[in-house]
Design goal:
The complex is a heterodimer of chains A (about 450) and B (about 170). Chain A is α/β, with parallel strands linked by helices and about 450 residues long. Chain A contains 20 helices and 13 strands. Chain B is globular. The chains are: A alpha/beta (about 450), B alpha+beta (about 170).
């Protein structure tokens, strides 16, 4: 059984309280960092760990920190991105609900490393219960001297606040998040300047995902080199995977990066296979934005090598036959699911969530939604598939922020891998409204794999 | 929560509410009080059930910003209601992972049970409902949430929805 760094104590009764968390070794990283390390040494440990941003982009966290400008007399900010809204992803909610002090401990260490005196956790507004949990935990930590003035007598001051969002997926994009935190509409900013130079209130700012901040705690406790020993290649450490869809055991799992996807999907330690004894049709491996893959291509790469849960292996084959780790939002589709309907559903989501700033995204997401809607409801044309690919290509890369790409990829990949299912919706318009296309030939090698796993 | 307020009546915030506003404003640097806008709109909505124009004007006055700065924010973010809602708003997640485990049948069941379409209020003023996008609970779908506390209800079935609606009716009548 793999070692757990973040969720080791998640099932300890009362771990959401300061005292129990502390009794399990909590806040040791704060003591170690503030009393024995300099801010630069903390940054160095995180660099050595190879930790990559867990929010989706996978950018090395230590490197992001080292880009932070440090002009004299200007405040610096750390903002935690807890605007978890990528369909398929629910790991941050889980972490904040059950072990809030882990995030707070990480925030203190990271704020110290960056020289921030005020830090914010931007939580999506719908997570009011988690906001209340965090605020209670912050009050506890403050009462025990881990926040506020002169923390643990080291002379370091830090105030930590929770900021609710208002229900907008776009605020997960870091510059939109900063706009929102300034009390504005969540319209992403044009970069450069990057937040490391001009972020919150025009001051140097680092924005990190909940899980990235939490991972700083084991990195400081055990050292960056130890953390880097876990995982595989440039995918170091452990990763929280939110497993949902038609799985026997959906939930949040902490895995060592490099775990074979087949083991993750079928072993009883993790997802336990597909629910109701059905067969796997397709997988979205890293949240709705990443390319969807048919079961056979998901389990094995195009070179017939077993695919692993790592940034590199999931991306093997590029967008032709691979996908991305993204935020770790793992969605499994069984044989009864309709890819056209799912693609329409995602297109509607992106249309709904487009901030409207850039025309290609504002208009293009709406067109894709309309075309997919008519395909799903039996009014599609054979030319629609090329039209959708064309629209997606015109959105991709032509917008200020990555929401445009995120909207384009699922549509383009669904047509790339499931074109015959889309065509069947055109040739069988009435049948398509009453039954699903089924598993077809995508899952050819699958029954054997299932037997092998069973 | 107060009863639904007439959109044309000016609003006066209670001293308790104003002190909550002040607490929020204290979290930001001097002169950056506009950052308090989103949290304050949540407080207003929790008090009145929605964000009316007179209430938004008062918020603008409190934060010393233009009313348009409040309107543009309230209309951008999906959580703020720009018209009166039922006392309980059932918000059902309808995005991908919830959809494949049955979000649509749940919404159809709610529509049938309450007898009102999406966005409409039941005649007794108790309920309204709508489909919302991903609520980040994809492993426990279908899910719905009810403000202003945003309590979560997971792994919904028609029976559990009936139970929930019954419980809320009972709570409202006591």
């Amino acid at each position: 059984m793999a070692r757990k760094l973040l969720l080791e104590h998640i099932n300890v009764p009362g771990i959401n309280t300061f005292d129990v968390y502390r009794s399990k070794g909590g806040y040791a990283a704060v003591e170690k960092a503030l009393k024995t390390l300099t801010p630069d040494e903390v940054v160095e440990e995180v660099k050595k760990s190879g930790l990559r941003g867990r929010g989706g982009a996978g950018f090395p966290t230590g490197m992001k920190w080292s880009f932070l400008a440090k002009p004299e007399g200007v405040a610096r900010y750390l903002v935690c991105n807890a605007d978890e809204s990528e369909p398929g992803t629910f790991k941050d909610r889980y972490l904040m609900t059950h072990i809030p002090h882990l995030l707070i401990e990480g925030m203190i260490v990271a704020s110290f490393a960056l020289g921030a005196k005020t830090s914010y956790i931007y939580v999506r507004g719908e997570m009011m219960p988690q906001i209340r949990i965090l605020e209670r935990a912050i009050a506890e930590a403050k009462a025990k001297g881990f926040l506020g003035k002169n923390i643990l007598g080291t002379g370091y001051d830090l105030e930590l606040y929770v900021q609710p969002g208002g229900g907008a997926y776009i605020c997960g994009e870091e510059t939109a998040l900063l706009e929102s935190l300034e009390g504005k509409r969540g319209n992403p900013r044009i970069k450069p300047p990057f937040p490391a130079i001009a972020g919150l209130y025009g001051c140097p700012t680092v924005v990190n995902n909940v899980e990235s901040i939490a991972a700083v705690v084991p990195i400081i406790n055990e050292g960056g080199d130890e953390y880097a020993k876990l995982g595989i290649g440039r995918s170091t450490g452990t990763k929280l995977i939110s497993a949902g869809g038609n799985l026997r055991k959906p939930g949040v799992y902490e895995i060592d990066l490099g775990l074979p996807v087949e083991e993750f999907l079928y072993s009883d330690e993790y997802c336990g296979g597909i629910a109701n004894g059905k067969r796997l049709k397709a997988v979205v491996a890293g949240g709705s934005s990443v390319p969807i893959l048919p079961a056979n291509l998901f389990l094995k790469t195009i070179n017939n090598e077993p695919r692993l849960m790592s940034y590199e292996s999931l991306a093997d084959g590029g967008f032709v036959s691979g996908t991305m780790m993204g935020s770790g939002g793992f969605i499994a589709y069984d044989e009864d699911q309709c890819i056209v309907r799912n693609t329409w559903n995602f297109a509607r989501f992106y249309h709904h969530e487009s901030c409207g700033q850039c025309s290609p995204c504002r208009e293009g997401t709406g067109w894709m939604e309309k075309v997919l809607h008519r395909l799903e409801y039996g009014h599609g044309k054979m030319s629609d598939m090329d039209l959708l690919v064309d629209v997606s290509k015109k959105i991709e890369g032509n917008t200020i922020c990555p929401l445009g790409d995120a909207a384009a990829w699922p549509v383009a990949s669904a047509i790339r891998h499931f074109r015959d299912e889309f065509e069947w919706h055109v040739t069988h318009p009435h049948e398509a409204t009453t039954r699903n296309f089924g598993i077809a030939h995508y899952a050819d090698p699958l029954p054997k794999l299932e037997e092998a796993a069973g | 929560m107060l009863s639904v307020q007439d959109p044309n009546t000016p609003v006066t915030f209670s001293p308790e509410l104003i002190s909550k506003f002040a607490d929020v404003v204290s979290r930001y640097p001097e002169g950056k009080q506009k950052s308090a806008l989103l949290p304050i709109l949540h407080l207003v909505q929790a008090e009145y059930g929605w964000t009316s124009v007179p209430a938004m004007d008062k918020v603008a006055e409190y934060l010393a910003i233009q009313p348009i700065e409040v309107y543009e924010v309230a209309s951008f973010y999906t959580m703020y209601f720009l018209k009166p809602q039922g006392k309980y708003v059932l918000e059902v997640c309808r995005t991908g992972p919830c959809e494949i485990v049955g979000a649509t049948p749940i919404m159809q069941h709610i529509e049938k049970t309450l007898g009102v379409k999406e966005g409409e209020v039941t005649p007794d003023g108790l309920f309204s409902w709508r489909g919302v996008e991903c609520l980040a609970a994809c492993g426990f779908g279908p899910v719905l949430q009810i403000g202003p506390e945003y309590t979560f209800y997971e792994n919904l079935t028609p029976e559990s929805v009936d139970q929930l609606i019954g419980d809320l009716k009972g709570k409202a009548n006591n």
